């Protein structure tokens, strides 16, 4: 009987939560009428930057769905969350960084939990290329 990888299964809970959040919020950044369009305008960011953040969020969420790329997707989300926290602090609203704490923490958990899959994949590609 094969041993059930409980840690691996448990890692899917934060992963699927992050996928849900960042697919929905990332795609909302593509809309000119979304709250995100207004927020980025208030923060004096150009439209292309809002769209870029949306692309990063959607791409990060999509990468979370495979073990090999999950750590890259999680790292992308970590960078977006750190940037969002920096925006709140630089715009004089440091109390708003709390909205990024949960996704940041969950992304770090997924990054750490899936790192071995990415590392094995990269080292296997290096061996086959040599």
How would you characterize the overall build of this protein?
The chain has helices at residues 6-28, 35-42, 47-63, 67-90, 98-129. Helix content is 80%, strand content 0%. The chain is elongated. The chain has five helices and no strands. The model has no long low-confidence stretch (mean pLDDT 91).
Q: Give the count of helical stretches.
A: 5
Please give the domain count.
1
From the alpha-carbon coordinates, what is the Rg to the nearest angstrom? 17 Å
Q: Mean pLDDT, rounded to whole units?
A: 91
Main pleated-sheet profile: none
Task: Tell me the strand percentage band.
Answer: under 5%
Quantity of strands, as a count: 0
Overview features:
80% helix, 5 helices, single chain, mainly alpha, 130 residues
Summarize the structure.
The chain is an all-alpha fold and 130 residues long.
Give the helix/strand layout.
Layout: H1 6-28, H2 35-42, H3 47-63, H4 67-90, H5 98-129
